[in-house]
Amino acid sequence: QIFNQHNAEAPNLEQAFHRMAQMEPNLDHDVSWFLLPSYWAKMVVALISFLCFANSYDGDFVFDDSEAIINNKDLRAETPLGDLWYHDFWGSKLSSNTSHKSYRPLTVLTFRMNYLLAGGFYPVGFHVINIILHCTISVLMVDVFSILLGGLQFSNKGRRLNLAPKSSLLAALLFAVHPVHTECVAGIVGRADLLCALFFLLSFLGYCKAFRENKEGHTFSVFWVLVSVVLGAIAMLCKEQGITILGLNAVFDALVINKINLLELIRKLLYKDKSLENVGLLRKGLLFRITLLMCGGASILYIRWRIMGTGPPAFTEVDNPASFADSLFVRAINYNYYYSLNAWLLLCPWWLCFDWSMGCIPLIKSVSDWRIIALAALWFCLIGLICQALCSEDSHKRRILTLGLGFLIIPFLPASNLFFRVGFVVAERVIYLPSIGYCILFTYGFSLLSKQAKKKKILAVAVLGILLINVMRCALRSSQWRSEEQLFRSALSVCPLNAKVHYNVGKNLADKGNQSAAIKYYREAVRLNPKYVHAMNNLGNILKERNELHEAEELLSLAVQIQPDFAAAWMNLGIVQNSLKRFEEAEQSYWTAIKHRKKYPDCYYNLGRLYADLNRHIDALNAWRNATVLKPEHSLAWNNMIILLDNTGNLAQAEAVGREALELIPNDHSLMFSLANVLGKSQKYKESEALFLKAIKANPNAASYHGNLAVLYHRWGNLDLAKKHYEVSLKLDPMAPGTKENYNLLRRKLEQLQKKGG
């Protein structure tokens, strides 16, 4: 009977506990917003976050996706899984001087799984995973914001209470629909930020679980503290920012669990007050937990440092010009200006760009520059918020402002240039996590306005309007990320001074065959950045193809003068010099390219062509053989070897090379065609016929294939089949050299045979 009575009273005890918790200051008292059960709140957040980015699901691989996914050998099955732990995000060895040291093996592992499950590079699966990740993170935000805004309270059954359901829903919606997140969700390489954020939040929620009182009555669980450290390590293996969660867990512990007044603590430390225990520093195991977090963080960083190597990442001035400024004043002013731009993107995410480097944001070099106002405004706001967070008599206000500032600033520190140089000026992806702090501050500001406002519904409608505008902006920006053409063109109005934007638009046009338009954008890129060697190289290539050889030579010569180790420009310069019949200079350029890039199969191929033009046949064959050793699937090099050996009468050697090539590239119809020609000359008619027919099946519209098969039949004595294929060849190409003459010979022979038969 006593047992039954206890069970009957348990729900009442839980309700009483909830009422006691709600007696504390609470944002929801002032917020005029929707109140939904937790399950429905999460469903709404998931649905809206999905609607924002759903139209990106069938987008292409764009921008950095090419290097991180398509050209990344770590995604392919033949690459050992163990290599992922020694390579950077782009598939380069971490020990390489050219590595950016971005160590994200778990992110690359998910790309590899996508690739293997899809059976190739099909972007839909990659995009769908990104959208699901963002929806999952947005749903988790409901729980995270309920803790950050409402505090951490558990019922007598150990169930966490949501003391700010309205505020947490609003903050989660703000996070879910923020347009600045588009790069992370619609750009596949943004998965690094998404995975990092997922384990970042799980680490935080795991740390909160440590304070649920267990059956033994312990005030905290060491197990869950250690779990949070492990999850923080996993977050860092997805992206470097993940390590910052350990610092935020310590801040949360001090402010929410131990309710430390930072200003009071600072005063007592300064005056060496012996009553520090009363502040809460040593109570409830805080010092022990912070020691665990610090030891875990230090161990993670040490292991990361050992794997990465001691050398810093290699960046150039165009990546981050402020970090290369000689003056400390110029560096400090510009770094702070970059911070203000990041803050502005959170406040007004209307002008978004895939890349903010290369002149997009000119350096501030003097205090007379009007942009100084932006960083002054940033620090005015930050100092105001910090003063309120430290000095306010309202403990609830102090806690929320400090947590908001903590989540805004601490995850941003790795991208701040304070500890090491980063390879960008502004990057929208790096404010995915700091936007948590922005959402906390926005929601708190809304609660203050609601408290003062007489017409709270108008204020709520205004916030709904902001959310709706953000949803539409997300949808629009997602559609721009669907293809490179739309993405690059969208940046022209945002960053018209960015040489890389013009370069990428030009490259996209060139890839589509619109060379005239591409030249215009490449020229503009070079005008904006006269040292932009990649734009010079690409422009030189197009001019070379248009036979504007002298201007192409000038551009490529300037490119290698600016960057002497630019192997691709040296090779292209060699091609131009070869076309200008300056063979010695061309040979020197090719060897210079190979000196700077030892494994350069295309350069060996072009060197072989040069030697063939000079009738240096042995040198040509050696160069092409080097190309095929470095790149066994180099079809052009194999083909040239077969043709050269054929033309010089080395039919047996040509046949051996042809068979070797087809073993490596069995479906290459051009190799089938070349080997078929050799076999025909060796009177191996049956095998030659089979290869010709196979080549024609793969490429039925090649006039030369039909013409040479006709010649084979002509030699073989199959005159009717020869006549048939001569006619097909002439139909495909009436001007095919030699075919018409051979056809006329065959017709005369057939006429003679008919006369004899008659």
Describe the structure.
The chain is mainly α and 758 residues long. The chain has helices spanning 2-22, 38-53, 65-70, 105-118, 123-150, 165-176, 182-186, 191-209, 222-238, 244-257, 262-270, 276-279, 286-308, 328-347, 372-391, 395-409, 435-452, 456-480, 484-492, 499-511, 515-528, 533-545, 549-562, 567-579, 583-596, 601-613, 617-630, 635-647, 651-664, 669-681, 685-698, 703-716, 719-732, 739-757. It starts with a helix and ends with a helix. Residues 1-23 have low confidence and may be disordered.
List the helices and strands and how they pair.
Elements: H1 2-22, H2 38-53, H3 65-70, H4 105-118, H5 123-150, H6 165-176, H7 182-186, H8 191-209, H9 222-238, H10 244-257, H11 262-270, H12 276-279, H13 286-308, H14 328-347, H15 372-391, H16 395-409, H17 435-452, H18 456-480, H19 484-492, H20 499-511, H21 515-528, H22 533-545, H23 549-562, H24 567-579, H25 583-596, H26 601-613, H27 617-630, H28 635-647, H29 651-664, H30 669-681, H31 685-698, H32 703-716, H33 719-732, H34 739-757
